[in-house]
Specification:
Oligomer: heterodimer
Shape of chain A: globular
Shape of chain B: globular
Number of domains of chain B: 1
Order of helices and strands of chain A: HEEHEHEHEEEHHEHHHHHHH
Strand content of chain B: 15-25%
Largest sheet of chain B: 4 strands, parallel
Largest sheet of chain A: 5 strands, mixed
Radius of gyration of chain B: 16 Å
Low-confidence stretches of chain A: none
Largest interface: A-B, 43 and 37 residues
Helix content of chain A: 25-40%
Strand order of the largest sheet of chain A: 2-1-3-4-8
Strand content of chain A: 5-15%
Number of strands of chain A: 8
Structural class of chain B: alpha/beta
Structural class of chain A: alpha/beta
Order of helices and strands of chain B: EHEHEHEHH
Distance between the termini of chain A: 44 Å
Helix content of chain B: 25-40%
Chain lengths: 325, 151
């Protein structure tokens, strides 16, 4: 990863120096080794704090909605999963494509600090990844963890490859993996209605309506959001068992149905660890099953499943009785 | 002296029916003028097209105490706006399947295509749906508890 970071830094410097781009969007060092945050770099000096490591899980594509409207070009580093969101936003005319200089970077799966902490390893000062092993350095010595155990949930079932016509690519070869991202959805589907209700009620009642899932979601980019209406009566800010959380999450999932690229940011940022990606994946699974395989963000043109139709579509009554498949 | 009954009050469900202006609402009208009966607890909300029904409408109906929600529109291919109900079909298929995934009983939601000439069908569909929801009982999962507190 260090060699990739150096290459990225080199490119960012060259682009800024030549004046080809006015700013570079990347990741900035945080207070700890495990909390880099997205940042915009406008000069070579600012690049001192540039970082790209195993904790750079954030999806940078959403920042381009604002940044691509500024004067001058914006260079951006996109991981494979970010490139889908990028395409989707270009398709929706939210990003000015001609103002963006895309540099594709390799990912290899990012780590989740919460999962590392859950393994009983705290005060992490550095990590080194070798194949399936993660060597974690702490003041108390080194610990070796298995990588599949500590990657972000979104990375665990990721099989994404770059989908943008990139200006350039800094990428290593990545082996195809045999993963089924719908495994957990299928598990839920196999439960009874009562069990499912109990499961979601337990999960969603943890919600504190911080709106982080909405704010981070590249598909949730409406200028005026339906949930920003104070008269809607859905602005509770406490752990709640009421209907509001369900309404919020059902509507949010529905609003991104057919546009969600399954980038998994919603689950990554949730402070309450609600598996929000399982809501979106249900829609993706249904759309795949009923209207043909569809991956949002694979291209930057064409129609989405919910803005198109065929005359022979399945009837809703058959679908939710499970008879249409 | 008044007899004290220990029997529970019979449950009559609240049903919200979204009917499109051009077919199903006219179908309901025909059912009425043909003297066909359907339960009085079906509350019809007229919408310009079945496609006008936003998922929030369905959820709000449940929140405000509906026990079942049925959506009626023109038969696919007969939409007054040509393609509206094709979109409805996809949307509602996904929404209802999703509600079931969240643990909401699938019998509480339904989509039916009823044309303006199908008064008899409208009445039959409503009778059937009300019977189905009555058998299921009260909607407890999607109701906002505060709505019911005042009762």
């Amino acid at each position: 990863m260090k060699d990739v970071e150096l290459k990225m830094l080199e490119r960012a410097k060259a682009l800024l120096e030549s004046g080809e781009v006015a700013r570079v969007i990347g990741w900035k060092k945080g207070d700890f080794c495990h909390d880099p945050s997205p940042a915009s770099f406008e000069s070579v000096e600012e690049l001192d704090s540039f970082v790209y490591d195993y904790f750079c899980g954030a999806n940078l594509s959403k920042y381009l909605i604002q940044m691509s409207k500024k004067e001058g070009k914006t260079a951006v580093f996109l991981k494979p999963c970010d490139s889908y969101s990028f395409n989707q936003l270009v398709k929706e005319h939210r990003i000015k494509r001609e103002n963006v200089y895309v540099i594709a970077v390799e990912c290899l799966g990012k780590l989740d600090i919460e999962k590392i902490k859950a393994k009983g390893v705290s005060f992490v000062t550095g990590v080194e990844v070798q194949d399936k092993e993660v060597k974690v350095t702490t003041p108390y010595g080194e610990e070796v963890l298995s990588k599949p155990d500590v990657v972000l949930t979104k990375c665990a079932t990721c099989n994404k490859t770059h989908q943008v016509k990139d200006e350039e690519i800094i990428l290593h070869e990545r082996p195809e993996r045999d993963v089924n991202r719908f495994e957990e959805v299928e598990k839920l589907e196999a439960m009874t209605e009562d069990e499912r209700f109990a499961y979601w009620r337990a999960q969603l009642s943890k919600c504190i309506r911080c709106n982080a899932c909405r704010n981070v979601c590249p598909a949730c980019s409406c200028v005026k959001c339906v949930f920003d209406n104070p008269a809607s009566g859905i602005a509770a800010k406490a752990n709640d068992d009421k209907f509001e959380e369900q309404l919020f999450h059902i509507i949010r999932a529905f609003h991104v149905a057919g546009r969600c690229t399954d980038c998994g940011e919603c689950s990554r940022v949730c402070p309450q660890n609600i598996p929000l990606h399982l809501l979106n994946r249900k829609f993706i699974k249904d759309i795949d099953g009923l209207y043909g395989e569809y991956q949002a963000g694979e291209t930057d043109e064409g129609k989405t499943p919910l803005t198109s139709y065929t005359e022979g579509d399945a009837e809703p009554n058959d679908v939710f009785k499970g008879e249409a498949k | 002296m008044q007899e004290v009954t220990t029997e529970k009050k019979e449950f009559t469900p609240n049903i919200v029916a979204f009917c499109c202006n051009w077919c199903s609402y006219a179908g309901a009208d025909l059912a009425g003028s043909s003297r066909l009966t359907y339960p009085a607890n079906v509350k019809i909300i007229r919408v310009p097209c079945s496609c006008r029904v936003n998922p929030t409408f369905v959820l709000k109906a449940f929140q405000q105490g509906a026990d079942g929600v049925i959506l009626c529109g023109c038969h696919p291919g007969d939409c007054h706006y040509v393609t509206g109900n094709y979109y409805t079909r996809r949307r509602m298929a996904l929404l209802y399947s999703f509600l079931n995934y969240m643990g909401i009983e699938k019998e509480r939601t339904r989509v039916e295509w009823v044309s303006a000439a199908e008064g008899a069908r409208f009445s039959a569909v409503m009778n059937d749906f009300v019977a189905q929801v009555t058998a299921l009982g009260e909607n407890k999962r999607l109701t906002d508890l505060r709505v019911k507190e005042g009762e």
